[in-house]
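Task: sequence in, structure out. Protein: Glycosyltransferase RgtA/B/C/D-like domain-containing protein.
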Amino acid sequence: MPPANYQRPPRFHFLAAVAITLLAAIPRLLFLGHDSLWFDEIMTRHGAVQGLAADVTALSGRDHLPLLYWLTAAVLRLLPEHAITLRLPSALAGVLTVPLLFAYGRALGRPRAGLWAAFLLALLPFHVRYSQEARHYALLLFFSLLASYWLYRAMSGRRGWPWVAFGAVTAVNLLIHYSAWLLLVAHGLLGAAWLAAAIRRERGAWRRVAPAVVIIGVTVALLGARAMVALRANTGGAMGTTAAAGLGVWLGEVWRAFGMGAAGTAAILSVAVVMGLVSLARRRQWWTLAALLLPVIVPVALIQLFHVTRFALPKYVIFMLPSWLLLAGMGLAAAVDAAQRLTWPGNPRARRWMAATAMAAALALLALPPLRAEIDDMVHDWRGAAGQLGPGAAGDVALALALDTGDGFNAAGIMAPVYLDPGFKLLDGNHLSAEDVAGLAGQTGRVSALLLHLYRPVTLRGWDVSHHRGSLYAATPTGEPGDLLSQLADLYGQLIPQATAPEPACSLRLKLARVELGRGETERAAAAMDAGDCPPGGAERGEIMTRIHEARLAAALADGDRAAADAVTAALLALNPRHEAALAAITVVNWLAELEAGRLTVDAAASPEPVAMRRFTMPQDGDWGDVLFMHPTAAAALAVTLPPEPAALRFRVALDPQSWEWGGDGVTFVVTAQAAGEPARELYRRHLGRDEAGRGWHAAELSLAEWAGRAVTLTLSTEVGPAGDGTADWAGWDAPRIVRVLP
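Result:
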């Protein structure tokens, strides 16, 4: 059992802790509004604006837990909306973590190590960054550290209320970020080991632990389903942001971030950490060692075990930071103690003060350059990039476009409205629609752009391109205002070769084709679709190719070019078998139109229902058709003169899904043809029963080539089944029509 370490430390420790906290507050609060907001922070704003009852899981398909949004919403109710107020919960959590780290060191019986750890945290650029970001990570560190503190306090004493505090803080932490659940496993193992040891000495020890178990258990039960969705979405290569990173990658990224971003400083702190471990082992303080190591070892093991598909970003495991800093603090304290072996100055206390002062000054000098770089850096300088575009005049367009993501996720389209001059018409370039293009047709103005590309610089001819921190670029035109669609076509054409292949380069090709269609440049649109190595298929590609073929068909029909029209018609029907213009181009006779015109010879004397037009929809796939409804026994005949070229009778037959369960023995569909002076000939006979095989659509195409250029009477008829049972024989011929057979 860990010892109770609550001897009152010297007053100097408290004064030093206050001074270090004030030191930490300077970079975290003074420059809080320095950076422009970036994408994830805007998501925080969106979640907070929805209010305290917002279900933030619906935000952009993301699965973050809601506590940050609730806290931000509360702040926005008290203070005006601003980058500073949005970041205030993180900033306060970041500052308060510093004295809390000292308090944890004191609870471990190492108050001087706690002071060193707090000093390192105050100067750590990694922590400054997330203390100034309106996201979860500063809160995650604060409440994770608070949970560790109360767990150690609970294990060190014989009272029950520290366990209640641990349970309550853990419940709060589980509402901040799913990474907290990794820490919960580590704390659970540590608490279980303590309980197993405590029960040997005190059978009733479990009663003190029970409230914490209940609080945490209820929280896990309430959030468990949601956590499982997040687990499936972010592990095993499912839906994460990247492939699972290896152990070496994770440890390397954490080592650099926790070591102030520089290999030299990280190496120095690593030596201090090893000294801290040795110090604990030599004193046989195994519980303290376990309390510091389990929150590191267990989460890393779980990340590797579940193959977490996230970038190896240290912010996801920021709760490991206290263990690193406290162990380093123990090593630094041991180094100061070693200074007492020096012979000068004569006073041992003076020697220790000199060593501590020199060490603190050296660490501050090492931390100053990366800390200053962190303060100067902007993740995405959206304010500066939007300002580069200047004010928007009438007709001006700003295109927001990501060149480095293949899923169409356009951070620029979400960030730009926050900082862009309202005079611009903003277009989401990754999701440019036909309606967007139609709205720009014939319009003049200037096209500017906000571009994202993480992997390579962006260059453009005819635009001034400026690089803003990270992956953000602003492009302003150098020429005079002109046709907007022509400028967009030029812009897309230059950006496609620079985009990440095959996506989003393929996606941008589709947008270029849309723009060319809007300009009336059908063949340019087709060339954009044909270029590159974009895979076939997809709804957007099909829609654009349909529009290209429609334009080609209209041109071919206007020119009287039958061969070209037939080729385009075949392409259209391959994309959409129901395309009206394509069907009209090859249709000789549409039976449904003939029914409406009263030109069919209908025989329904033996049918209980009239021949009419109805719609059947198949429940298994939603496939629908407008049918010539014929309850047996019924027939519909049409006399027609066929064209000289080959023709066919095309249709589908089916039983109305409403009648599938009504009994009966099915329907027989029959097609006959009779030329003048010749006997009738049966071309088609098919029986559909009520079983699974008879359900759904059944297509047929009957050749009429032998009657080409001749008059013939075609008859569609329905008959009752073999048993003569006409119960619920709701039969239909879907879109029967005589069509020219294309070459």
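DSSP finds 25 helices and 18 strands in the chain.
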